[in-house]
Each structure stands twice: as structure tokens, then as C-alpha cells.
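Quick one - first record:
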Amino acid sequence: MASSEPPPGQELQAGRRPGNAGELAGGARIRGLATLYKASIFLVVLHIWLMSTLVYKTVVFIIETVINIHKHTLSRHHTKAFKLITDPDAFQLLGDETRRRIIYLLRAKEMTVSQIAGELNLTPQAIYHHIRKLRDAGMVEVAREERVDHFIETYYRATAEIFNMSHGSGTSSAYHEEKAAESLKALSRIGLTVRDDPTLASRLVELEKRMDQIGEKQSWADAIAGLEDVDFFVKQGVDH
């Protein structure tokens, strides 16, 4: 009688087929996940690199822009708060309105002859004439020179924010003593006690004269202007 059961070898092979298919599918899935994982890591690294490169270029661009805008002011020498002028000829220079306007412009910023001429609606030749006289008087100086194509542009600036004019001794000591004595009497009228001393007025005049002599020395003015921790108005008070 013939048996209906398959031979043992065939039964074993048939039983292994479903298991082999499942293992193959699982291995493919694992390899696919591993590939996706590696690809995601690569994309993350690439994204970080692109972002860091973009940020770096942006920072460099900002720094270069700031430097280009302020390249002439980063190392610019600071203008003095004030300067003493004792030359009588310099007094006459400032009697001209155009020269006063030039000083006003050059206190605000550095400018070329052409720029000043455009602001004042004058010819460059006329402005250069005034600049030369102001330079000789020590009220204007060259701030910097810049090459533009085949030309060199010269920028000028004022040598100080305020010019103190001083020349001669002024009125007589007797006149100052008389005015000092009148001031002392006026103080007593408003209720301030003033010591009755006939020499007080002359002593005050002498003290003021000595202070003026000290203030007329440019070395003192330079020393006061060099005080970095003192503002402009305090420097003015010390100078006066």
C-alpha cells in the first residue's frame, strides 16, 4: 500500500522555506535601516557644516563692513578740547566769516578741499587759500591722505574744539583792583561777610594774573586736554 506522506527530505526542505524568506526580509530591513541611519548622520553633519560656514561668512562680512565704514576713525587722533592762540595775526584770520565756517565744519569731521567747497558753495581754489592760512596759524592740520585712482585726497581737521585767544596784558592792574574792590563791596550788600582788608583786592588781582599766566602755557593746555577720565566741560573749567 502506497504511503501519502512525503519523503523525509522533502518535508524538511518544505519546512525551511518560510523561515528563509522571513530571515531574508528581516536582514533587508536591518540593512535598510542601517543605510538610512548613516544617511541621516551624514545629512546632519552636512547641515551643521553648511550652517557654520554661513554663520562664519556672515560674521566676516559684518566685521569687514564695520571696518570699512570706520577705517578712518579707528586709529584717528582725537582732536584737542581746546588750544591757546597767542598770535595776533590769527585773530585777524578769524575775523573772516568764511574761515570761521571752515573751522566749524572741520571741528565736526575731516573734509577735503572739494567737500568744503561744496558745502560753502565756493571754488576749491578759494577754499585752499583759506586752508593754507589757517594751517600756518595752527588752527587746521592734515588729518590723513587717501589715494583715489591717480590722485591723492588730503583730509583736513581743526586742531581743537575751542580756540582760546590771548594776547598782551589787557587793562592795567589798578583798573582790575578797583573792579575787585567794587565786587567785594557788592558781596557785603547781599549778606556775605567779607573780611575788611585793604590789600584783599590787590591780592585777588595778583592771584588771577598768576592763574592767567599758567593758563597761557600750551604745555598746561596739552596736559589738561590729555586727561582721559575728565569730560569736555570739566576740561574747560580747569583751563579757565
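second record:
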Amino acid sequence: MFVKPGESIVLKCNTTADNSTDFWLYLTKKNSPHETLTEGVDVNNHYKTRIQITGNTRNGEYHLKILNFTRQDEGIYRCITDREIMPVDVYLQMKGVFLRSLVFDIINIIKCM
């Protein structure tokens, strides 16, 4: 999924289990250690100004809202519930970053010639 810089985005996580504990995890790169962003509605102190849990948690909605998306927010986000078997993975990438970087590199190469 592509996200524009500065945009806010909501990642949806629904569970059918009553009284389940939902976790949002963030994995910066494949096979890297993860960070726990939320446990239920409790947000990790490090991220309190950047993320929120939205949705009706009584109905099993634990949506992750990321505010003011930056390049540092790129990566895999995973929703895991204690009663569901399959986690929900979403890969977020900043829209247009690769192309702008490539154009900038080409311009610098041309200047050096």
C-alpha cells in the first residue's frame, strides 16, 4: 500500500473473538525484530503522539491510525489477536519516494560528468 508523506492512514483489524487481546506490531524490514505498537487499546509510550487505536473495540475493531506518515514509518504492520489464527500483514511504502530518489541520483551523476 502506498502512502503520501504527511498523510494519515488507518489499517483495519477486526476480530470476532470476545475479550481478545489485539496487538499491532511493526516490522521495519523482513526478518527484523519487531516492535509492539499497541496491546489492546494501550499504545506504546514511544508512539503515543504518532498512532491511535480507532474503531469500536467492543465490536472487535482495533484499527491502527498512523498520523503524519513519514519515510521512517515504511515497513510491515501486523495485527495479531490472541484467538485468531492468521495475522493481518500490511506493507506500507511512501508514495513516489523511489522515483524521486532515482531522479536525484541520475541528476547528480550527470553533474559529475
